[in-house]
Specification:
183 residues, little secondary structure, Pectate Lyase C-like, 2 helices, 0% strand
């Protein structure tokens, strides 16, 4: 953890040293605004870690465990999070454009104002997630469980909801796949 703290203050971080330090990250660690873009973090355990404003663009987080982490405002554009656990994560206003979240667990996640345009969420679990005003335009939500979720004022224009479970989902004011507004 001491190595990680010293790396945070550096302007240009050596990615190999950073990757090594991340293998020792403890729950509750503060990685705010850290540049982790493009790193291979598949299978990493980063539970309840503070990643506010972190740059994870293009990172490989396949099957990573981010349960309860705070990723508010994080950049996850083009990141691969397939099979990742994001249970109860705060992803408010995060950038998930073109992110691969296929099979990811986003149960009870906060995705208010998140940008998920053209993201792949096929077979993902979004039960109880809150996506107020989220942008899901052109997103792949095939076979996704969105039960008991809140998508109030969300943009679903062009999204693929084939075989998605929307039972008890709040779609008030949301823009549907065909451009019509839900009542």
């Amino acid at each position: 953890m001491r190595l990680l703290t010293s790396l945070k203050g550096m302007a240009e971080i050596d990615k190999q040293k950073l990757l090594s330090a991340l293998t020792e990250v403890k729950e509750g660690a503060d990685l705010t605004n850290l540049d982790l873009s493009g790193l291979q973090l598949a299978g990493f355990r980063l539970r309840r870690v503070k990643l506010v404003g972190a740059n994870l663009a293009g990172a490989n987080l396949v099957n990573a465990d981010l349960t309860g982490s705070n990723l508010k405002g994080a950049d996850l554009q083009d990141a691969n999070l397939s099979g990742a656990s994001l249970f109860g994560c705060d992803l408010e206003k995060s950038n998930l454009v073109r992110a691969n979240l296929a099979g990811a667990n986003l149960t009870a996640a906060d995705l208010n104002g998140a940008d998920l345009q053209a993201a792949t969420l096929e077979s993902a679990e979004l039960r109880g997630a809150v996506l107020l005003g989220a942008n899901l335009a052109e997103a792949n939500l095939r076979q996704t469980n969105i039960e008991d979720a809140t998508l109030k004022n969300a943009n679903l224009k062009g999204a693929d909801l084939t075989n998605a479970n929307l039972t008890d989902t709040n779609l008030e004011g949301a823009i549907g796949p065909d451009g019509s507004v839900f009542g």
